[in-house]
Write a sequence for this structure.
């Protein structure tokens, strides 16, 4: 494994921000962190980066502890704005890349390329404070990957972006992964994690309450949704054992069931009532899993 976090705990006085967290991420993988504010995501990132020392546990990148010497291998986009507002965009990006051992010539060339890709080449000579929040976020992402790190940590990378720019940044992150980078990112948007990541962790009060590959997480959750369109009233089928929820839709009905066996019984009963127009068995979304596992704490 490229990134290895073993039984890491972080305490601030009597408060436990991260509680016995373990995870491992393969080289070239993308891992998503989900959790409400205060769940421990940012604290975990700061321990991975070496900005905070764990109270106990170990963090290793390619078998070694992360130190200042690891800086050229790591890119970090913090959730809060971390740019110098009075400094020009190009000067700032080149300066930050040089801190990570990139030559000035290479940094200027890469900066020009990324500004062009993100459709803001004319902002190179502007001060950061003159940019919109969305464009500042673009510049922060460029700063995190300009020096071509092998480990990229992104804390809420799509914050403040409109849908067009979200798609632009998602493509850039996926392209960066294809070049071999290992990526860890957090988001409040379940759909972003579902779309981009191979593996994920849901944090609640500093603990991982759900973790693993997204496919396995969905499979282990068990619950399924059944979408039916039949020429009949299906509402009375909500009383069948294993049916947990029933919703009328424009096309028919949506049932939440405990497992696939219940879905088969539901299908058979529905077909006895009339002509079947549509049947679909849908896996649970990450949002449904998140609400089921931690939503009650944040209702």
């Amino acid at each position: 494994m490229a990134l290895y976090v073993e039984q890491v705990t972080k305490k601030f006085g009597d408060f436990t921000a991260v509680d016995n967290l373990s995870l491992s991420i393969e080289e070239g993988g993308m891992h998503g962190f989900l959790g409400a504010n205060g769940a421990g995501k940012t604290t975990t990132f700061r321990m991975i980066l070496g900005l905070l020392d764990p109270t106990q546990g170990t963090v290793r990148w390619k078998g070694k502890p992360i130190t200042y010497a690891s800086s050229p291998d790591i890119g970090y986009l913090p959730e809060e704005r971390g740019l110098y507002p009075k400094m020009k965009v190009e000067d700032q990006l080149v300066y930050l890349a040089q801190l990570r051992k990139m030559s000035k010539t290479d940094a200027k060339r890469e900066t020009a390329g990324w500004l062009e890709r993100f459709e803001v080449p004319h902002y190179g000579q502007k001060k950061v404070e003159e940019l919109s929040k969305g464009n500042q976020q673009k510049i922060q992402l460029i700063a995190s990957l300009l020096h071509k790190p092998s480990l990229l940590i992104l804390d809420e990378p799509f914050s403040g972006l409109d849908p067009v720019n979200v798609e632009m940044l998602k493509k850039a992150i996926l392209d960066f992964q294809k070049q071999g980078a290992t990526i860890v990112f957090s988001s409040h948007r379940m759909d972003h994690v579902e779309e981009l990541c191979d593996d994920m962790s849901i944090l609640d009060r500093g603990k991982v309450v759900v973790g693993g590959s997204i496919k396995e997480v969905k499979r282990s959750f068990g619950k399924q949704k059944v979408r039916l369109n039949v020429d009949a009233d299906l509402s009375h089928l909500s009383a069948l054992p294993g049916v947990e929820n029933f919703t009328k839709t424009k096309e028919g009905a949506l049932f939440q069931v405990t497992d696939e066996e219940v879905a088969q019984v539901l299908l058979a009963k529905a077909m006895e009532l009339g002509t079947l127009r549509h049947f679909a068995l849908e896996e649970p979304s990450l949002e449904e899993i998140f609400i089921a596992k931690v939503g009650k704490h944040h209702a």
